Protein backbone atom coordinates (compact mmCIF):
# COMPACT_ATOMS: atom_id res chain seq x y z
CA UNK A 1 0.00 0.00 0.00
CA UNK A 2 0.87 3.60 -0.57
CA UNK A 3 0.62 4.99 2.95
CA UNK A 4 0.71 8.67 1.99
CA UNK A 5 -2.93 9.43 2.69
CA UNK A 6 -3.47 7.04 5.60
CA UNK A 7 -3.07 7.65 9.33
CA UNK A 8 -1.14 4.38 9.57
CA UNK A 9 -2.03 0.69 9.56
CA UNK A 10 -4.03 0.57 12.80
CA UNK A 11 -7.59 1.89 13.12
CA UNK A 12 -7.77 5.43 14.50
CA UNK A 13 -10.68 7.60 15.61
CA UNK A 14 -9.29 10.67 13.86
CA UNK A 15 -8.31 9.41 10.42
CA UNK A 16 -8.54 6.76 7.73
CA UNK A 17 -6.30 3.72 8.33
CA UNK A 18 -5.21 0.89 6.05
CA UNK A 19 -6.77 -1.61 8.47
CA UNK A 20 -10.11 0.16 8.17
CA UNK A 21 -10.24 0.03 4.36
CA UNK A 22 -9.12 -3.62 4.32
CA UNK A 23 -11.78 -4.66 6.84
CA UNK A 24 -14.44 -2.65 5.03
CA UNK A 25 -13.50 -4.39 1.78
CA UNK A 26 -13.73 -7.78 3.50
CA UNK A 27 -17.19 -6.98 4.83
CA UNK A 28 -18.51 -6.99 1.25
CA UNK A 29 -17.20 -10.51 0.54
CA UNK A 30 -18.85 -13.81 1.58
CA UNK A 31 -17.43 -15.95 4.36
CA UNK A 32 -14.76 -13.54 5.63
CA UNK A 33 -14.56 -12.30 9.21
CA UNK A 34 -13.67 -8.61 8.79
CA UNK A 35 -11.13 -8.43 11.59
CA UNK A 36 -7.45 -8.63 10.68
CA UNK A 37 -4.09 -8.56 12.44
CA UNK A 38 -0.90 -7.50 10.68
CA UNK A 39 2.83 -8.20 10.77
CA UNK A 40 3.68 -4.54 11.26
CA UNK A 41 1.69 -1.57 12.55
CA UNK A 42 3.11 1.01 10.18
CA UNK A 43 2.82 4.67 11.16
CA UNK A 44 1.09 7.46 9.26
CA UNK A 45 2.59 7.97 5.81
CA UNK A 46 4.62 4.74 5.85
CA UNK A 47 4.28 2.37 2.90
CA UNK A 48 4.35 -1.43 2.61
CA UNK A 49 5.26 -3.81 -0.20
CA UNK A 50 5.25 -6.91 2.00
CA UNK A 51 2.70 -6.45 4.77
CA UNK A 52 1.20 -9.74 5.99
CA UNK A 53 -2.28 -10.00 7.51
CA UNK A 54 -4.25 -12.91 8.94
CA UNK A 55 -7.99 -13.42 9.41
CA UNK A 56 -10.66 -16.12 9.59
CA UNK A 57 -12.58 -17.36 6.57
CA UNK A 58 -15.33 -19.95 6.19
CA UNK A 59 -13.84 -21.02 2.88
CA UNK A 60 -16.89 -19.99 0.83
CA UNK A 61 -14.57 -17.88 -1.31
CA UNK A 62 -11.70 -20.02 -2.71
CA UNK A 63 -8.31 -18.82 -1.48
CA UNK A 64 -6.95 -18.37 -5.00
CA UNK A 65 -9.76 -15.89 -5.72
CA UNK A 66 -9.29 -13.84 -2.55
CA UNK A 67 -6.77 -11.27 -3.88
CA UNK A 68 -8.86 -10.37 -6.93
CA UNK A 69 -12.04 -10.26 -4.87
CA UNK A 70 -10.46 -7.98 -2.27
CA UNK A 71 -8.91 -5.73 -4.90
CA UNK A 72 -12.32 -5.19 -6.45
CA UNK A 73 -13.38 -3.57 -3.15
CA UNK A 74 -10.14 -1.82 -2.14
CA UNK A 75 -9.12 1.75 -3.05
CA UNK A 76 -6.28 2.17 -5.59
CA UNK A 77 -3.71 2.85 -2.86
CA UNK A 78 -4.10 -0.66 -1.37
CA UNK A 79 -3.77 -4.00 -3.16
CA UNK A 80 -3.77 -7.65 -2.08
CA UNK A 81 -1.00 -9.64 -3.78
CA UNK A 82 -1.55 -13.26 -2.76
CA UNK A 83 -3.31 -15.47 -0.20
CA UNK A 84 -2.85 -18.91 1.33
CA UNK A 85 -4.46 -21.11 3.95
CA UNK A 86 -2.54 -21.39 7.24
CA UNK A 87 -2.98 -23.31 10.48
CA UNK A 88 -5.28 -22.17 13.26
CA UNK A 89 -2.31 -21.17 15.42
CA UNK A 90 -0.91 -18.72 12.85
CA UNK A 91 -1.02 -15.07 13.89
CA UNK A 92 0.42 -12.42 11.57
CA UNK A 93 1.83 -10.43 14.50
CA UNK A 94 2.74 -13.02 17.13
CA UNK A 95 4.09 -15.65 14.72
CA UNK A 96 6.43 -13.18 13.01
CA UNK A 97 10.15 -13.89 13.53
CA UNK A 98 11.57 -10.83 11.79
CA UNK A 99 10.65 -7.82 9.68
CA UNK A 100 12.56 -6.00 6.99
CA UNK A 101 12.16 -2.28 6.44
CA UNK A 102 13.78 -0.01 3.88
CA UNK A 103 14.32 3.73 3.83
CA UNK A 104 14.92 5.53 0.53
CA UNK A 105 16.73 8.83 0.00
CA UNK A 106 17.01 10.35 -3.46
CA UNK A 107 19.77 12.75 -4.45
CA UNK A 108 18.52 15.72 -6.43
CA UNK A 109 18.64 19.50 -6.28
CA UNK A 110 15.10 19.65 -7.67
CA UNK A 111 12.09 17.61 -6.50
CA UNK A 112 11.31 14.52 -8.59
CA UNK A 113 7.50 14.24 -8.55
CA UNK A 114 7.41 10.63 -9.76
CA UNK A 115 9.32 9.34 -6.71
CA UNK A 116 8.83 12.07 -4.11
CA UNK A 117 5.94 10.22 -2.43
CA UNK A 118 8.24 7.28 -1.66
CA UNK A 119 11.66 8.79 -0.92
CA UNK A 120 13.22 11.70 0.98
CA UNK A 121 15.09 14.24 -1.11
CA UNK A 122 18.64 15.32 -0.29
CA UNK A 123 20.37 17.92 -2.50
CA UNK A 124 23.99 16.86 -2.91
CA UNK A 125 26.19 13.79 -2.61
CA UNK A 126 26.55 11.42 0.34
CA UNK A 127 29.57 9.44 1.53
CA UNK A 128 28.17 5.93 1.15
CA UNK A 129 31.28 4.21 2.45
CA UNK A 130 31.09 6.19 5.71
CA UNK A 131 27.39 5.35 5.97
CA UNK A 132 28.13 1.65 5.49
CA UNK A 133 30.84 1.74 8.16
CA UNK A 134 28.43 3.39 10.56
CA UNK A 135 25.53 1.06 9.77
CA UNK A 136 27.64 -2.02 10.59
CA UNK A 137 27.59 -0.92 14.24
CA UNK A 138 23.85 -1.52 14.33
CA UNK A 139 24.27 -5.26 13.77
CA UNK A 140 23.58 -7.56 16.70
CA UNK A 141 21.58 -7.21 19.90
CA UNK A 142 21.39 -3.72 21.39
CA UNK A 143 19.20 -1.40 23.40
CA UNK A 144 17.87 0.88 20.64
CA UNK A 145 16.30 3.48 22.95
CA UNK A 146 18.46 6.21 21.38
CA UNK A 147 16.54 5.88 18.12
CA UNK A 148 13.01 5.48 19.53
CA UNK A 149 10.46 8.29 19.68
CA UNK A 150 9.26 7.19 23.12
CA UNK A 151 10.36 4.93 25.97
CA UNK A 152 9.38 1.29 25.55
CA UNK A 153 9.32 -1.63 27.97
CA UNK A 154 11.40 -3.88 25.71
CA UNK A 155 13.96 -1.67 23.96
CA UNK A 156 16.44 -4.47 23.26
CA UNK A 157 16.19 -5.75 19.68
CA UNK A 158 18.43 -7.81 17.43
CA UNK A 159 19.41 -6.45 14.02
CA UNK A 160 20.08 -9.41 11.73
CA UNK A 161 21.19 -7.58 8.58
CA UNK A 162 21.90 -4.04 7.39
CA UNK A 163 22.55 -2.96 3.81
CA UNK A 164 23.02 0.35 2.03
CA UNK A 165 22.64 0.08 -1.73
CA UNK A 166 21.96 2.35 -4.70
CA UNK A 167 19.02 2.19 -7.07
CA UNK A 168 17.77 4.14 -10.06
CA UNK A 169 14.10 5.00 -10.22
CA UNK A 170 12.35 6.77 -13.05
CA UNK A 171 13.98 9.96 -14.37
CA UNK A 172 17.41 8.41 -13.67
CA UNK A 173 17.47 9.95 -10.19
CA UNK A 174 19.99 8.18 -7.91
CA UNK A 175 18.36 6.61 -4.86
CA UNK A 176 20.10 5.44 -1.69
CA UNK A 177 18.33 2.52 -0.01
CA UNK A 178 18.92 1.59 3.63
CA UNK A 179 17.57 -1.88 4.44
CA UNK A 180 17.38 -3.24 7.99
CA UNK A 181 16.19 -6.70 9.03
CA UNK A 182 15.51 -7.21 12.75
CA UNK A 183 13.49 -9.33 15.15
CA UNK A 184 11.58 -6.21 16.14
CA UNK A 185 11.51 -2.43 15.77
CA UNK A 186 10.79 0.33 18.27
CA UNK A 187 8.47 3.20 17.37
CA UNK A 188 10.48 5.57 15.17
CA UNK A 189 13.60 3.38 15.33
CA UNK A 190 14.07 2.95 11.58
CA UNK A 191 13.55 6.64 10.79
CA UNK A 192 15.88 7.65 13.62
CA UNK A 193 18.63 5.34 12.37
CA UNK A 194 18.14 6.69 8.84
CA UNK A 195 18.44 10.28 10.07
CA UNK A 196 21.62 9.51 11.98
CA UNK A 197 23.20 7.69 9.04
CA UNK A 198 22.27 10.61 6.79
CA UNK A 199 24.27 12.92 9.06
CA UNK A 200 27.22 10.54 8.70
CA UNK A 201 26.82 10.62 4.93
CA UNK A 202 26.87 14.43 4.99
CA UNK A 203 30.05 14.43 7.09
CA UNK A 204 28.28 15.95 10.10
CA UNK A 205 29.29 13.13 12.44
CA UNK A 206 31.96 10.37 12.28
CA UNK A 207 31.01 6.79 11.37
CA UNK A 208 32.01 5.42 14.78
CA UNK A 209 29.54 7.75 16.52
CA UNK A 210 26.75 5.18 16.31
CA UNK A 211 28.42 2.93 18.89
CA UNK A 212 28.51 5.85 21.33
CA UNK A 213 24.86 6.68 20.66
CA UNK A 214 23.72 3.08 21.20
CA UNK A 215 25.65 2.84 24.47
CA UNK A 216 24.28 6.14 25.81
CA UNK A 217 20.63 5.20 25.06
CA UNK A 218 19.87 8.93 24.79
CA UNK A 219 17.56 10.06 21.97
CA UNK A 220 19.06 13.55 22.06
CA UNK A 221 22.40 12.23 20.78
CA UNK A 222 21.01 10.65 17.62
CA UNK A 223 19.97 12.31 14.38
CA UNK A 224 16.44 13.42 13.50
CA UNK A 225 13.61 11.15 12.45
CA UNK A 226 13.41 11.40 8.68
CA UNK A 227 9.94 11.85 7.13
CA UNK A 228 7.67 8.81 7.00
CA UNK A 229 7.36 8.85 3.20
CA UNK A 230 10.75 7.20 2.67
CA UNK A 231 9.94 4.19 4.87
CA UNK A 232 8.55 0.91 3.56
CA UNK A 233 7.79 -2.45 5.20
CA UNK A 234 9.20 -4.88 2.64
CA UNK A 235 8.92 -8.32 4.19
CA UNK A 236 7.95 -10.29 7.29
CA UNK A 237 9.44 -13.68 8.12
CA UNK A 238 7.69 -16.69 9.66
CA UNK A 239 8.61 -20.26 10.68
CA UNK A 240 8.78 -22.67 7.73
Layout of strands and helices, then pairs:
Blueprint: H1 18-26, E1 37-38, E2 47-48, E3 53-54, H2 66-71, E4 98-107, E5 120-122, H3 128-135, E6 140-143, E7 156-168, E8 174-182, H4 189-201, H5 209-216, E9 231-237
Parallel strand pairs: 2-9, 4-5
Antiparallel strand pairs: 1-3, 4-8, 4-9, 6-7, 7-8
Helix pairs in contact: 3-4
Concise synopsis of the structure shown:
With 240 residues, the protein is an alpha+beta fold.
Give a description of the structure:
By secondary structure, this protein is α+β, with helices and mostly antiparallel strands. The protein folds into 2 domains: 1-96, Pseudouridine synthase I, catalytic domain, N-terminal subdomain (Alpha-Beta Plaits), CATH 3.30.70; 98-237, Alpha-Beta Plaits, CATH 3.30.70.660. 18% of the residues lie in helices and 22% in strands. The protein has 5 helices and 9 strands, in the order αβββαββαβββααβ. The strands form 2 sheets. Strands 2, 4, 5, 6, 7, 8 and 9 form a 7-stranded mixed β-sheet that branches. The chain has a two-stranded antiparallel ribbon with strand order 1-3. The longest helix is centred in the last third of the chain and has 13 residues, at 189-201. It is globular and about 60 Å long. The two termini are 26 Å apart. The model has no long low-confidence stretch (mean pLDDT 96).
